[in-house]
Amino acid sequence: MQAAKIQPNVPLPITLETIAASVGEKKPLLRDALIASGRLLELPITQRPKILGEWLREGDFGYLYAPRGHGKTWLAMMIGNAMATGQSLGSWQAGEKCPACRLLRCRDEPS
Question: Is the pTM of this model over 0.85?
Answer without folding.
Answer: no
